[in-house]
Amino acid sequence: MADRVDRDLNRFRQIVRGRIKKDLRKYMSQGELIGRQGRRYVSIPLPQIDIPQFRFGQKQSGGVGQGDGDVGDPIGRGDGQPGQGEAGEESGGHAIEVDVSLEELAKILGEELQLPNIQPKGKQNIIAEKDKYSGIALVGPESLRHFKRSYREALKRQIASGEYNPDDPIIVPIKGDMRYRTWKTKLQPESNAVIIYSMDVSGSMGTEQKELVRITAFWIETWLRSQYKSIDIRYIVHDAAAKEVDQQTFYYIREGGGTKISSAYKLTLRMIEERYSPDEWNIYAFHFSDGDNWGGGDTRECVELLRGQLLPKLNLFAYGQVRSLYGSGRFAHDLEEYVGRAENLVISEIADRDDVYDTIKDFLGKGK
Which residue from 196, 213, 222, 359 has the fewest beta carbons nearer than 10 Å? Predict the structure, then answer.
């Protein structure tokens, strides 16, 4: 019975997994999914999957098996008045919510988008000590006694001495038979990573543009967390000036002011120099803007900062340009023209929610 339950549960999980993969583009475009996020799980509503289950009504509410009645009496048809209303012709919608771990969601994302596993830079590896129980010793604390090995030694001793009786197989270990588990300390490389998000919050960036950024950032973080043991996340907002903020402020700050993109790049550079040495960290920078930048040579300064100082320090620099009615959209074309050949630079345009799927594939498809 237990095996059958396990088989049914595994089959249901495979159905859920297949449904998520099939509709992944739709889920990636929905901001509601982010709102369903728990600490390690995401609650995903799946239509057209129904699990049979008992549903209990309120006590003393009447119904089958309650009240007076004789054999053959028809079951009541509800509280409605006879002859009122019309029969419906549409089928009912059945949906359940399933909890999917962020690790499983990352696997589905990687499989569906065919994302390569990230290859961290070798010099960013931080060596950590990890203890692993892999040996047997003749002495040790009782809490680490290895019962199976101890009884095996006792059996071998009794057989060798002729004390073992197969008709009365009593095995009594003595002190010399005792074996204990021991551990070895291994040095394991652990790669740390930091994500630095920058977002334009000037007057041309509205609520819909910030929602696109929010959705895209969720999927970026989901994938990168599956690739690294530890991740720091930093948030920068900028209009004509840049500043570091917390996550809540990053997503919900009100827009206003002009645009000077170089201010965000300078703050990113200062943050790296002060806190995240490229010798110890894998660094990912993501910048989102509507492509409108202040004149007076600021775009030229951005290009110089990227080519001369930022790109050599980064695993990846990804620029996502969200469409706005008020933005010129010029900045993506300038980056493509002047820096587009850099291997760790990715540029993607996000016109609407349907483009989030393709943007994630652009950003993460190089395995940097």
Answer: 222
DSSP letter string over 55-115? ----TT---TT-SS--TTPPPP--SSPTT-S----SPPP-EEEEEEEHHHHHHHHHHHHTP
For the chain, the domains span 1-49+95-114, 127-186, 191-364
Those residues whose C-beta lies under 8 Å from the C-beta of residue 271, and which sit 6 or more positions away, are: 196, 234, 236, 244
Residue 262 is encoded by which pair of tokens? Answer: 């170089």
pLDDT, tens digit, 9 for 90 and up, residues 176-185 = 889 998 877 6
Whole-prediction pTM: 0.63
User: Residue 181: CB partners within 8 Å, gap ≥ 6?
Assistant: 133, 135, 136, 137, 140, 144, 145, 146
| Rounded Cα distance, 299 and 310, in Å | 15
Name the CATH superfamily housing domain 191-364: von Willebrand factor, type A domain (3.40.50.410)
